């Protein structure tokens, strides 16, 4: 029986790097393959992180590239930017993700049964990239629930209630099994017009069964996956089934520092002062230095900390066609002294307001943007 491949993409972000270290150290029996999709427009700190990780693992991180780029002597971004005739990527048209991340990734997988590991943390309430290809299964080791929503929709479908109960009867009996019956019996709709309600119920059912026992839930889902042909069905057992770790933001930085790999410098806060008030800014994500998901304060950070790269980003804009990185504002307009002052003042207000809120993780306004954007790029 062929075993599935276990792969992990290194985006240059803290979460994917920490996940790679965590899995490498905790599950050496799994033969992990690491890859990196280089856009050619990363910060130098990203490439340094890749080098540090390769030294730590003692094995290479495979650089993925599309065939049409070979022999062009162009960076991936510049090649596709020209093919789109100067049309910048945006939240509504993410050709950068489709062509520079997903396309080389799915070619790398090459139709083989594959388990892809995603670094979404336990303090984040979002779903990561889930491939539409049946041969690719996503796993989220940092969360209490390691399974992706696609398999949970099948697991909690009333049509599979009898099968799921049979699986749980191997672990529970009496009152505990009765509780499972109650949870599975809760009404649920799969009407497309009620997607939000369906998601809410799935989340409630998942948390309820997890409260009864994480390893038991994992083993029930693992056995269930064998009936529907997921890649993990090819494994006789799976070491993550007994894992009850839940890792949050502070854990990520600790893993990076304790391992010696280090935290990319662009995450380190830099102090600024405006009208006698002091604030801090940094970059909240990995990815291209001109990423359109950046907040305006991050553009100011880029201008003041990496002026040369900011000027490079300006060259891609075409104001006559309204092709700008920031909606309704060119980078030339954004760096005017009065505009920079306004952006910093607004950032200070939002930061102070956010810090005043009750939060178990005390994330400030900039760090909160980690939840925004493209899951494929920023993990």
From TrEMBL:
Every copy of the Phosphoadenosine phosphosulphate reductase domain together lies at 7-126
Q: Where is the signal peptide?
A: none
- InterPro entries assigned to the protein according to its UniProt record, in alphabetical order: PAPS_reduct_dom (IPR002500), Rossmann-like_a/b/a_fold (IPR014729), Sulfate_adenylyltrnsfr_sub2 (IPR050128)
- Which molecular-function annotation in GO is an example for this chain? catalytic activity
* Annotated PANTHER family: PHOSPHOADENOSINE PHOSPHOSULFATE REDUCTASE, SULFATE ADENYLYLTRANSFERASE SUBUNIT 2
Kindly provide the name given to this protein in its UniProt entry: Phosphoadenosine phosphosulfate reductase family protein
Q: List the source organism.
A: Flagellimonas hymeniacidonis
């Amino acid at each position: 029986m062929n075993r599935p491949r276990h792969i992990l993409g290194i985006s240059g972000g803290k979460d994917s790097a920490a996940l790679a270290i965590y899995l490498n150290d905790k599950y050496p029996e799994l033969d992990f393959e690491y890859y990196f999709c280089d856009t050619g427009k990363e910060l130098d700190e990203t490439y340094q992180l890749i080098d540090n990780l390769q030294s730590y693992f003692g094995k290479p991180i495979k650089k993925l590239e599309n065939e049409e780029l070979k022999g062009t002597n162009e960076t991936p971004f510049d090649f596709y930017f020209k093919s789109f005739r100067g049309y910048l990527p945006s939240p509504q048209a993410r050709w950068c993700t489709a062509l520079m991340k997903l396309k080389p990734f799915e070619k790398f997988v090459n139709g083989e049964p594959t388990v892809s590991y995603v670094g979404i943390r336990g303090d984040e309430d979002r779903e990561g990239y889930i491939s539409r290809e049946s041969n690719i299964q996503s796993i989220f080791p940092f969360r209490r629930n390691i399974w992706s929503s696609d398999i949970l929709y099948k697991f909690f479908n009333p049509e599979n209630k009898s099968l799921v109960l049979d699986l749980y009867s191997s672990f529970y009996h009496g009152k505990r099994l009765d509780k499972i019956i109650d949870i599975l019996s809760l009404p649920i709709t799969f009407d497309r017009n009620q997607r939000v309600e369906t998601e809410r119920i799935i989340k409630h059912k998942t948390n309820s069964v997890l409260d009864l026992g994480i390893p038991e839930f994992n083993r029930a889902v693992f056995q269930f996956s064998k009936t529907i042909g997921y890649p993990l069905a090819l494994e006789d057992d799976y070491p993550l089934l007994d894992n009850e770790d839940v890792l949050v933001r502070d854990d990520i930085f600790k893993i990076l520092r304790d391992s010696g790999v280090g935290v990319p410098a662009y995450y380190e806060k830099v102090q600024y002062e405006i009208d006698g008030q002091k604030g801090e800014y940094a970059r909240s994500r990995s990815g291209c230095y001109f990423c359109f998901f950046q907040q305006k304060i991050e553009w100011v950070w880029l201008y003041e900390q990496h002026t040369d790269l900011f000027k490079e980003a300006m060259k891609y804009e075409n104001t006559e066609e309204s092709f700008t990185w920031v909606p309704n504002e060119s980078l030339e307009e954004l760096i005017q002294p009065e505009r920079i002052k306004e952006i910093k003042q607004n950032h200070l207000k939002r930061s102070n307001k956010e810090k005043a809120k009750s939060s178990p993780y005390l994330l400030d306004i900039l760090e909160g943007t980690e939840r925004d954007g493209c899951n494929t790029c920023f993990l």
